[in-house]
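Hi F.,

I've been meaning to write this up properly since the lab meeting, where we talked about keeping a consistent format for the predictions we share between groups. The idea is simple: the sequence comes first, exactly as it goes in, then the structure tokens exactly as they come out, then a line or two of notes. No screenshots and no reformatting. I'm using this chain as the first example so we have something concrete to point to.
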Amino acid sequence: MSSRPETLDHEAICRLLPHAGAMCLLDTVEAWSDTTIHCRAESHRDPANPLRGEAGLHALAALEYGAQGMAVHGALLADSGPARAGYLAAVRDLQLQTRRLDSLGAALEIHADCILSDRNSSIYDLRVSADAQPVLSARATVILQPADDEDSP
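Output, unedited:
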């Protein structure tokens, strides 16, 4: 297991993600293991949230919160070197339980459980909630870019 601390603050998370500035949406990693991560976020209530439109912050944005949780988890597991870049390739069984995130008063709780992973991809079950009320659930697949040493023949 990693030698990194179990919990991380916003600055530590931003160092693990390719996202810059306000696009780094997660505030803390509350806990993580080899197969799961639990994060918290308050940025859904920020009027300057980069995902917010004229009508507010649609609940579908919770998918980005979950994807960032997956990315942080992958980076934490890559303790032997830098994390490989990945792309969200598929989302299945998406269920939204609310219309907007910016109307939620409680912090978002982001849970990502890795159900399958190999050197090229990972599949996670995502759950986002606020004050124990479900916001989003989905199964998401991320495809990883080849490592630098895989590019050479």
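Notes:
The chain has one domain: 10-150.
The domain at 10-150 is CATH 3.10.129.10 (Thiol Ester Dehydrase; Chain A).

If this format works for you, I'll send the rest the same way.

G.
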